[in-house]
Design a protein that fits this description.
alpha+beta; D-tyrosyl-trna(Tyr) Deacylase, Chain: A; 2 domains; four-stranded antiparallel beta sheet; 8 helices
């Protein structure tokens, strides 16, 4: 993941990018997304290549306390003075950056004026390349297009199929906090809070069942490298996880092989029981407790700010469910493409300008045109 420094995303008129270890740790390709400020805002996507929502299934989302409407405010004040960016001026400003030996010769870029959508400088802008974490831009646009911005994902505990059973039902909230809560998330739900609610009902608990059936298919994405889970880049994608599936306190701690069972074991310890098995919630089962994630708008913001792979994958799955597709890698990739296709077509781009295999950008099989990213950023 790369980010720009400075309050307005620039430093001395030239974008400076610094590596953040959160994203996929790979030598090729390298992706930089930045914003240049001038009289009008020019949105820059530089890809540097080197070697109506339908209801979710039962238990996915419960009703939380109403959230206030999302108020959109500009991130930057309007600019005054100066001159509009020109192709020649941008070429001069970026010449030293783009000529850096470490970038190689496969540099493609797309720069346009956000207020007009008119390209100012492009090089290979319609060439599809591996986008890495900039895929999250596409995921964010798709999520905010089809999901209510104030929706919250609800993790529940309900009565089980036999006396003494309770079922922990996941809705895809990777911010649910347990032993090793990650910093930087807004107003997260806690497993301990859920356990307190269960205890307050007076229910005698002998066994904890875990239900992560909302998400289907493989837990590891096509084109993912083997070390992503052990290296702490992402958890196996699950509708039920605690602390993003981390098994230690560090941000890049290894992730649990089965996040749902790990979450069940943590809840069992809080409830004073030892038996944890897989199971399914029964339709109409009595709810014993529920905790709510931050809003979709907050999840999107956290995903982009942190380059959070777990949030990206769960938002992709929620997009899939919203448009009636399976909550799988294939389903989320198809759903994001389905949502973005009209936007890209209206911008004059081919319908396959974004071809995805996941929602986080970890897959080396993803392909995106730089022009597609700038059009999405300019929305």
């Amino acid at each position: 993941m790369f980010r720009t420094d400075g309050d307005d995303g620039t430093e001395g008129g030239v974008v400076r990018a610094t590596r953040r270890r959160r994203g996929p740790r790979r030598k090729a390709p390298l992706v930089v997304t930045a914003v240049l400020a001038a009289l009008a805002v020019a949105v820059v996507a530089v890809l540097l290549t080197r070697p109506s929502p339908r209801p979710l299934p039962h238990g996915a989302v419960a009703t939380a306390a109403p959230s206030p409407p999302v108020v959109r405010t500009p991130l930057l004040p309007p600019l005054s003075g100066g001159t509009a960016p020109t192709s020649a001026g941008l070429q001069r400003a970026l010449a030293a950056v783009l000529a850096a030996p470490g970038l190689g010769r496969g540099v493609v870029l797309s720069i346009l004026v956000a207020t007009t959508g008119v390209p100012v400088l492009e090089r290979g802008a319609t060439r599809a390349v591996i986008p890495a974490s900039t895929v999250k831009i596409a995921t964010a646009v798709a999520a905010l297009t089809v999901l209510p911005a104030n929706r919250r994902l609800t993790t529940r505990v309900v009565g089980g199929p036999r006396p003494g059973d309770v079922v922990l039902v996941g809705a895809g909230d990777p911010t649910l906090a347990g032993r090793y809560p990650a910093g930087g998330y807004p107003a997260v739900a806690t497993l301990s809070g859920l356990a307190r609610q269960v205890k307050a009902t007076g229910t005698v608990v002998r066994r904890v069942l875990v239900d992560d059936s909302l998400y289907v298919g493989s837990r590891l994405g096509p084109g993912w490298k083997p070390g992503y889970v052990s290296g702490g880049d992402v958890a196996p994608v699950s509708a039920l996880e605690v602390d993003g599936g981390r098994v230690g306190p560090r941000p890049l701690s290894a992730r649990a092989a089965d996040p749902a069972l790990d979450a069940g074991r943590q809840l069992a310890r809080l409830l004073g029981v030892v038996t944890v098995v897989r199971g399914s919630a029964v339709v109409g089962a009595r709810q014993l407790g529920a905790v709510f994630s931050p809003t979709v708008a907050q999840l999107v913001q956290a995903m982009l700010t942190r380059s959070d792979n777990d949030l990206a994958e769960t938002l992709g799955r929620q997009v899939a469910l919203a448009v009636g597709r399976p909550a799988s890698f294939a389903g989320e990739a198809a759903a994001v493409g389905q949502v973005l296709r009209p936007i890209l077509t209206a911008a004059g781009l081919v319908t396959d300008a974004i071809r995805l295999q996941d929602s986080s950008g970890l897959s080396v099989l993803n392909r995106v045109q730089p022009a597609a990213l700038t059009r999405l950023l300019a929305l």
